[in-house]
């Protein structure tokens, strides 16, 4: 079991996790496949959506309006959900949320629990809390079920088992479902279906997440493709929905925008196979559906994010995962390297805000700032700007924001010194020129006028950036005559040189 | 038109030929080119690594030098984008913010300046062979530069522009990212290298010396025959195969 492959590494060891992931060819093949397949499908799907930029702008405007008056919309949502028969609960943090779920289950004597896919329940580690009380919730989303059987964590927001190959899944099923190992997709899915059907039939309670909560009606909406979320929320007599407070939208009509954006961005579909709109409990005993619907509104750091003007936009996220698929870093290292529930670009933004930067200080730096995430984001979150904002906080808090035992943190005072010297010298033209003259003298042993190949261990120790660069790339030498020298010696005159 | 050249530290110190080429191209387009030798760096390395105060010091220096210019032209999408970000460095300082804003609006990336401001695309350049264009991230996504370089390359006599797969994909440079996470940086880079090799070109052309340093460094390590060229160098090329 490796950190890069199964999610046992933490955000503190992102660099080591990433190296392990890079050494895993099966993982990298799966990630390459994800990026091209979903990427191409997304392109095709957004071309059928009308004016995509207009949709994005409208979605963001709705989100901005919600975030400016979140308290009001949440109250409306709670009142209307209660009116429809749902019981609304509030949880300040993950521990409180888990307590609420445990209390509901205990009051009803519910022990057989099914679950549909939910990032909010991953975030609060609900399964762990339930297992500690001897309750084993069964994940019913195929991908989630696979990683539950494998005792792993999701490596993607939308496709949680993307890191696993068909062969690995076949071996896993052979072990748990007493069947012959196979990599036949139809055989695997029908085996899963048979096993999960029984769990649905037996279940006392179903736990789900929420994609959107509509304030004006108290309705919750869940999008999915497998039908398992509909079964989870309709067969058992108790339904518990865990909903981040940022999931509220003002009106049912706003779904027009979000339903065009989310499936296209997430899986490259025009629409998911199932959209379940749930408004309270069943009205009469002849109706189908649960007798009790509990909606748990989860803060867990979100109201803190709301207070910061630049970072508030992180709460506009609709968890589509498009930024993961588009990210060159995610494409190479996968979700587990991030060592956190939310991976990829949006994870690098959200996780430090939810958990603090102390143990997550590497995440904002795990990006080339290429901006592909910002371009694909359906709600126009400026992820690079947020990463820069978090980087500035890491530096301002240096070195406290990183644990002292890490090499990287030890190096940060030196990095700060180098940037300080650079800023001092390079805002003074004479010192700039002098510093570059010194550098030309210093580089001679390494370059002898040509490109610099892989440097030796001593040089790498003396100049870590040069060591890091030349491990995989040659480095160009400083030119013997700088541009300014050439300008002074003739280029400044008019006419061709 | 009077043009003040912001050559960038990387071009000044490592690739002066990009700067001299830019001067030639701008002069051929009829510009009166000036170079203020007090210029150093836009401060992007500090800004992108989180050192805001250090970036401010360099930002102030940069603004002081260029704010009187009629137009600032820079052979880098990334450094031009940084100049456009300078106002963000002074959230609580109205005076510096508005100075930064003023000069940012008059600062242009070279290729986009030639096509969109001067409206010139033919410089009599000659280059024999297949070339491909790497869309550098900040030029593409911060400045929206996509068609301009392709239009310019199309006018280079003898050059055949071949699109590589995923031309818009990042090369993995990312400033300090390239040395903080060298293994990831090179893994991303290798996809770019594979795409370049697949295009079977003589040269990969881009608008940023930093991407060319990253791509070129790996091409050299691999002993590839493909060479790197900055757009300015291609536009200044006069002989076949220059």
Outline the fold blueprint.
The complex is a heterodimer of chains A (497) and B (242).
Chain A: H1 3-6, H2 14-22, H3 25-46, H4 52-68, H5 70-83, E1 87-91, H6 94-108, E2 113-115, H7 119-123, H8 126-132, E3 138-139, H9 142-149, H10 166-176, H11 185-202, E4 205-208, E5 212-214, E6 219-224, H12 228-234, E7 238-244, E8 248-249, H13 255-266, E9 274-278, E10 292-298, H14 302-306, H15 322-326, H16 328-333, H17 344-355, H18 372-376, H19 383-396, H20 407-426, H21 429-447, H22 457-462, H23 464-470, H24 483-491
Parallel strand pairs in A: 1-10, 2-3, 2-4, 4-7, 5-8, 7-10
Antiparallel strand pairs in A: 5-6, 6-9
Chain B: E1 2-5, H1 9-13, H2 16-28, E2 32-34, H3 44-49, H4 52-66, E3 72-74, H5 77-85, H6 94-105, E4 107-109, H7 110-118, E5 126-134, H8 137-142, H9 147-154, E6 157-161, H10 177-180, H11 182-198, E7 203-206, H12 209-221, E8 227-230, H13 231-236
Parallel strand pairs in B: 1-2, 1-3, 3-4, 5-6, 5-7, 7-8
The biggest sheet of chain B amounts to: 4 strands, parallel
Hey, roughly how much beta strand do the residues of chain B contain?
5-15%
| Largest two-chain interface | A-B, 71 and 68 residues
Q: How many beta-strand elements of chain A? A: 10
Structural class of chain B: alpha/beta
Q: Label the overall shape of chain A.
A: elongated
For the residues shown, what is the average pLDDT of chain B? 97
Quaternary organization: heterodimer
- Give the averaged pLDDT of chain A, no decimals: 92
Radius of gyration of chain A: 26 Å
Supply the number of helical segments of chain A: 24
Q: How is the largest sheet of chain A built, in terms of strand order?
A: 1-10-7-4-2-3
Share of helix of chain B, binned: 40-55%
| Percent range of helical residues of chain A | 40-55%
- Quote the distance from N terminus to C terminus of chain B: 29 Å
Radius of gyration of chain B: 17 Å
Q: Give the H and E element order of chain B.
A: EHHEHHEHHEHEHHEHHEHEH
